[in-house]
Amino acid sequence: YDFKATKWKTSGLTPLPTPRSFSFAHAAPVLNGKIYLLSGVATQKTTPHLVASTKVEIYDPASNTWQIGPALPQPSVWGATVVANNAIYVISGGHLYDTPSSLVTNVWKLTDAWKSNLTTLETCDLNADGKFSSVDVTLFTKACKNKTAYWQCDLNNDSLFNSKDTAAYKLQWKKATKACSDGILANAFANQLSNLQVGGQGIVISILSDDNNGNRHQRFIIRLSTGQTLLIAHNIDIAARIETLAVGDNLQFNGEYEWNDKGGVIHWTHHDPDNQHASGWIKHAGITYQ
Questions:
Q1: What digits encode the pLDDT tens for the residues 8-46?
Q2: Distance CA 239, CA 271 (A)
Q3: Same domain? 101 vs 196
Q4: Where in the sequence is the domain holding 55, given as residue range(s)?
Q5: Helix-then-strand count for the chain, H and E
Q6: Global confidence as pTM
């Protein structure tokens, strides 16, 4: 709504990266002139068809652009949000089908996550669904055409944006259709982000002793193709131990990223017995552990 013109603007606005099913259950606090759309109800093909989202999407009215922010630690529909001390606080909330007694009582703090531009590594997964697809190509092309992109559009260095740049963008990420993990993890490490559900692959460079404090975890370190290292903490009270793991092995993983100054930690590499957290896994030597 334009208060000066006293009318609604109904065209020319950049669509939401992730549509919400209803006009309620999400929050939209404003921090530093940016609108942070938190959680809400999304749809999926499998049952249940309506699910609570962990998405954080940030809108800049000045440039008419959306960015993907760090995901909430867990869905938080019906929660309250407060802006204070240059941060957003998400209070309570829960899953879509929770009873009042099962609602979470956590408080999460989200500092200003808006970025003025994205590096090349960060442009692989523009809609933050964990992979490169035609959706990312469409977002790249539309934003560059509309001059609302916050990344480099002139990829062939001819001082123009045209179909050649879109082709160069597609070629750049042609082998990343399964996951844009290296770019996502590089961004998470550089910006000290946590609570991100990510996937990727790497080579085992060190096997550590088990962590037997509380739930037992098999621990080892992998190196990504970028050189970034990750500690994998694999819960062996829920998932099976990887008995044949050896230094030099290549493996794939899906789990939750937590920042530390050594590259980060991946945990939740298993299913959730309570069905309240995204399931993770490790694939090694043709076997899936979860």
A1: 887 777 777 777 776 667 889 999 999 999 887 777 666
A2: 8
A3: no
A4: 26-111
A5: 3, 17
A6: 0.53
